[in-house]
Amino acid sequence: MTAGLWVWWSLGALSAAALPCPEPEAARGWFEEALLEAADRRLGRALALYERAHASCPRIPTAFNLASTLQLLGRPVEAHDLFARLEEGAFGALSPEQASAVAALKQRAARQRSRIEVAVRGAPGAEVFVNDAPAPPVADLSSTYWIDPGRQRIRGRSPDGREVTLTATAAAGQTTSLTLVFVPLPSARPPERRVELPDAPPPRPSAWLWVGVGLAAAAVAVGTWVAIDQAGQPAEDPVWGRIGEPR
Asked: For residue 215, what pLDDT band results from cuts at 50, 70 and 90?
């Protein structure tokens, strides 16, 4: 873009488009200051002034110079989108000469963009962020995004909060493919269930115990009867003498 073209666009009617412009004088001042900064190749400062002027009073000259500065600073994606809006008449009707210049610069910005194909595994509908700027969610299994050339950070976030970050170096006019693989969350251990059982009743004596007790009592009774009844006299005990008689 030549300096003459910058001046030619700067002299366009700032108030020609029927768009809100609450501070036309301030916008014109920022615009003219931006032209001076751009002429001295201080493009970062010029960009900030163009953005202020365009936000306050969106017009064809501010949009054109803003898009051109973005393109010079290596941001062809934003530049292409702004040239496309100019071509659509978003800031007013373009003359044939203006339309031709915008179309040429838009095509150049399109060639400078990089394309990245992002595939997702393990998290359908994950959100995608390009250098922390949100991008449309990945549709189905993969989606394509336009990015500026250079080193870019691609971050994915699943609906359940898992995140994956990859870094890709994209070249102008080329396509880069990458896959965001989400590792499944560890399965949660089910909570332990405690079941309160009623107190057990006290153990009841077994029937065999009562049978044993009965048999023992019967044996004692029979033995005693036998000892007493034998020969009709108490039995002699070697220690205590006769049963029931003290020695």
From this structure: very low
pLDDT for the residue 130: 85
Q: How would you class 180 by CB atoms within 10 Å of its CB: exposed for 0-12, middle for 13-18, buried for 19 or more? A: buried
**Packed helices 3-10 and 24-39: angle between N→C axes, nearest 10 degrees:** 170
Kindly report the backbone phi and psi dihedral angles of residue 89, in degrees, each rounded to the nearest multiple of 5, phi listed first.
Answer: 85, 25
Instruction: Answer whether residue 163 shows pLDDT above 70.
Output: yes
- Residue 177: alpha-carbon gap to chain centroid: 20
Residues near 27 by Cβ (< 8 Å), separated by ≥ 6?
Answer: 14, 21, 52, 53, 56, 57, 59, 62
Is the pTM higher than 0.70? no
How many angstroms separate the CA atoms of 145 and 180, rounded?
14
> For residue range 166-205, what is the model confidence (pLDDT) as tens digits?
988 889 999 988 888 988 877 656 666 666 666 666 666 5
Backbone φ, ψ for residue 223 (5° rounding): -60, -45
**Ordered DSSP codes for 43-102:** HHHHHHHHHHHHHHS--HHHHHHHHHHHHHTT-HHHHHHHHHHHHHTBTBPPPHHHHHHH
Q: Which residue has the tokens 């809006």?
A: 85
Average pLDDT over residues 61-65: 93
- 54 contact partners, CB below 8 Å, separation of at least 6: 62, 63, 66
Long-range contacts of 150-153 (CB under 8 A, 24+ apart): 150/74, 152/116
